[in-house]
Write a structure and sequence with these properties.
Blueprint (H helix, E strand, L loop, with lengths): L1 E5 L2 E3 L5 E8 L8 E6 L6 E6 L6 E2 L8 E6 L4 E6 L8 E9 L2 E4 L3 E5 L2
Parallel strand pairs: 2-11
Antiparallel strand pairs: 1-3, 3-8, 4-5, 4-9, 5-6, 7-8, 9-10, 9-11
């Protein structure tokens, strides 16, 4: 199982970024996918989940108006669209899945929001 994130970088407050996570080694379309983030000195937190069925999504209330998760099962890829970024969105963002073989994480991609 491999999860490879990309798309992080430096963005100004109010800007947007789209993260991608390319998955391999399992049947991607059979599982929900998650995005987490971890800011310096803070615990890792869930930012978005997308289900395998009808692609319904979950977000914490604090993020649901700015973040959007989506997936392309043909490409084995899950995305995280982040809009109106704030300084406090600065973190390492991780792709994650729980599958029959266990829990798996990507290596993370750094998102830095700074003026």
């Amino acid at each position: 199982v491999q999860l490879v994130e990309s798309g992080g970088g430096l963005v100004q407050p109010g800007g947007s970024l789209t993260l991608s996570c390319a998955a391999s080694g399992f049947t991607f379309s059979r599982y929900a996918m998650n995005w987490f983030r971890q800011a310096p000195g803070k615990e890792r937190e869930l930012v978005a989940t997308i289900t395998k069925f009808n692609n319904s999504a979950y977000y914490p209330d604090s993020l649901k108006d700015r973040f959007a998760i989506s997936r392309d099962n043909a490409k084995n890829t899950v995305y995280l669209q982040m809009n109106s970024l704030k300084l406090e969105d600065t973190a390492v963002y991780y792709c994650h899945c729980n599958i029959q073989y266990g829990s798996f994480w990507g290596q993370g991609t750094q998102v830095t929001v700074s003026s």
